[in-house]
């Protein structure tokens, strides 16, 4: 299951994501609030991201599990006031020929899943599931929810503050925006303590199968907003996870709405649905 959770399942494409921070390569200025160290830059990013109302990002993910390689690419939109998320994955290379990609929408307690391969099972383009009705055995759906939420930059900025070796690489432009790049590693066990119990469970589902000491790079702009992250996690030579997230907008109005009721098959549980 670990490989499937990290790479995306037949009817659903999942993703992972991550976040970062910023520092100035020049001498720090207390008046301007410029971080004096890379660790301080991470702390400033956490504070800034705590007030973000929305974000949009592109995500690419590749995994290597045994001899199986899988790749995903998608777009995520998030609105913080109601914790709404929309995740569109038009490209999926997960070992199933002709996979049409997928979309997931999280609105409150409701998870909507769209994949054309579901039509043969439910005869509607979307299924609707209540998160509060999930059972402990519904592990595939729980893993899907975890991965839809992972691109949250604040969650990963908090994880990165567990790094003991984060350091400044230098100034670079990211999609035309001036940023500072940082590199480092962190112990997953320590990073998980920076999260809430629910976040901790979800992050363990995603990163746990791939190793205990992820390596990360993060690019942060002069407003302490993360513009790009890359995370690599390895467990020996048999398992590897590589995720890149590019954040394009912050604090702009976004629209996330549920699908039309006529297009949704509401289910009490996901049993029998190939997630």
Account of the 3D structure:
The protein has 275 residues and is of the alpha+beta class. The radius of gyration is 19 Å and the shape is globular. The chain has a twelve-stranded mixed β-sheet. Helices cover 21% and strands 36% of the residues. Helix 2 packs antiparallel against helix 5 and helix 4 (139-149) crosses helix 7 (197-207). Mean pLDDT is 83; it is low at 1-32. The longest helix is centred in the N-terminal third of the chain and has 12 residues, at 38-49. The termini are close together.
In helices, the fraction of residues equals 10-25%
Q: Helix and strand string, N-terminal first? A: HHEEEEEHEHHEEHHEEEE
CA distance, first residue to last residue: 12 Å
The helix count comes to 7
**β content, as a range?**
35-45%
Strand order of the largest sheet: 7-8-9-10-11-1-2-3-4-5-6-12
pLDDT averaged residue by residue: 83
Q: What about the largest sheet? A: 12 strands, mixed
- Counting DSSP E segments of at least 2 residues, the number of strands comes to 12
Low-confidence stretches: 1-32
Shape: globular
Radius of gyration: 19 Å
Structural class: alpha+beta
Write a brief structural summary.
This protein is an alpha+beta fold and about 280 residues long. It has helices at about 1-5, 40-50, 120, 140-150, 155-160, 190, 195-205; strands spanning about 55-65, 70-80, 85-95, 100-105, 110-115, 125-130, 165-175, 175-185, 215-220, 225-235, 240-250, 265.
